[in-house]
Each structure stands twice: as structure tokens, then as C-alpha cells.
Write a structure and sequence with these properties.
The structure is a single chain. By secondary structure, the chain is mainly α. Helix content is 87%, strand content 0%. The radius of gyration is 21 Å and the shape is elongated.
């Protein structure tokens, strides 16, 4: 039995781990792109309330569209085997939660803090840097904790619609189609382990970079 397991690890197992690395690459790329864009747009919309109110209905509408609606479009735009197509889908998924949470953190400020900054004749940039961004950090990390497993989900589901053989989504669909459910479950376990490790890394980064956020 041990010999069979060792043979599987050296054969199919190596493909499984390679697939996990490729899927995580798509997930982390989309995560960085989507969350970075979300924070940037939030900084702009928080400065001009009219822009925030105008964009919010579109953000909610786009966030309600299922992944399966975006996957064929992105595959057509970027190419079926191009990791950018999966990164784009992940970016769309994580963009809106990050943007909405960051906007809340930038705008839900105690009036006394703003009054104090105005009494010192602080510029809008100084208020942003000294008050709004520190207040938004817990909201941003909260969004990142949600976005980390969502990025893995988005990458795996996007791969169900096609992609390189060495990706978890394609591996799962092909093994399940061949009734090799043990291997399909093994790929699911790998995806879950990567998602948990990704989430744990965000929590660790929050404790190191923003310890006051965890205390709050």
C-alpha cells in the first residue's frame, strides 16, 4: 500500500502539486490586481462623495453577476490558456468587497477627529494620511481576509471552463469526468489547504503591520 502511494505521489501527485502552484499563481495575481484597484478607487471615491454615490450601484450590480458569466468572456479576451483570463476573473470578484470596505473605513470617521484636524488647519491630504487611512486599515484587512479565499474559489471555478492541464480546476473536472473521484478530492484538499494558508498569511500580516486593528 505504501508503494502504491509513493508511486502516486511521484506520478499524479507531482501533477497535482504543479496544478496547485499554477492555480495559486492565478489567484495571487488576481488578488493583487483586484484588491489594489479596489483600494485605489476607494481613495478616489472617498474624496469625492458624488463619485462614490454614482459608482456604488454599478459596483453592487457587477458584484451580483455570477462567475460563470465572466469566465467565457475573459477566456475569449485573453485566451483560454492565458493565466491573465483567470486573474481578471479573480480581480473582478475581489475588487468590489475591497472597494466597499475601504470606502467605509475612509468615511466612517468620528466628527471630533475631523474637527481637531480642521482646528490645526490640516490639508485634505494630511487628513487622509493621518486620520482616514489609519481608520481604514482594519476595514481593508477585513476585506483582504474575505478576498483571500474568494480568490482561490474564483481561480478554480474559472478553470472549469478551460485552461492548461496543470491547473486545479481542469484537473478536478477531468478526473471527475473519468470517475477518479479520489484524485478529484485530493485536488480539492490541495485547493483548500492553499486557501487556508493564504488566509493565515493575511491574518499574520495584519498582526504585524496593524496590531491596533486586531485589538479593536
Amino acid at each position: 500500500m505504501f508503494g502504491e502511494f509513493e508511486a502516486w505521489v511521484s506520478g499524479r501527485g507531482s501533477i497535482l502539486f504543479e496544478s496547485g502552484g499554477a492555480t495559486f499563481y492565478e489567484a495571487i495575481g488576481g488578488f493583487i490586481l483586484g484588491c489594489g484597484s479596489g483600494v485605489l478607487v476607494a481613495l478616489i471615491t472617498a474624496r469625492w462623495t458624488v463619485v462614490s454615490q454614482a459608482l456604488m450601484p454599478f459596483a453592487i450590480a457587477a458584484n451580483s453577476v455570477p462567475i460563470i458569466a465572466f469566465a467565457p468572456i475573459m477566456n475569449n479576451w485573453f485566451g483560454l490558456t492565458n493565466p491573465a483570463s483567470k486573474m481578471a476573473i479573480v480581480a473582478i470578484i475581489v475588487f468590489f468587497p475591497t472597494m466597499i470596505n475601504t470606502v467605509r473605513g475612509l468615511t466612517l470617521i468620528e466628527p471630533r477627529q475631523l474637527e481637531l484636524m480642521r482646528s490645526y488647519a490640516a490639508t485634505p491630504f494630511k487628513v487622509l494620511w493621518s486620520v482616514r487611512i489609519p481608520n481604514a486599515v482594519p476595514y481593508i484587512f477585513s476585506a483582504l481576509r474575505v478576498a483571500s479565499p474568494l480568490s482561490m474559489i474564483g481561480a478554480v471555478v474559472a478553470e472549469f471552463f478551460g485552461g492548461p492541464r496543470a491547473t486545479l480546476g481542469v484537473f478536478i473536472t477531468q478526473e471527475a469526468a473519468g470517475f477518479n473521484f479520489a484524485r478529484a478530492w485530493a485536488a480539492i484538499v490541495v485547493a483548500s489547504a492553499i486557501g487556508i494558508a493564504f488566509y493565515a498569511s493575511i491574518v499574520l500580516a495584519e498582526r504585524v503591520l496593524a496590531p491596533w486593528a486586531r485589538r479593536d
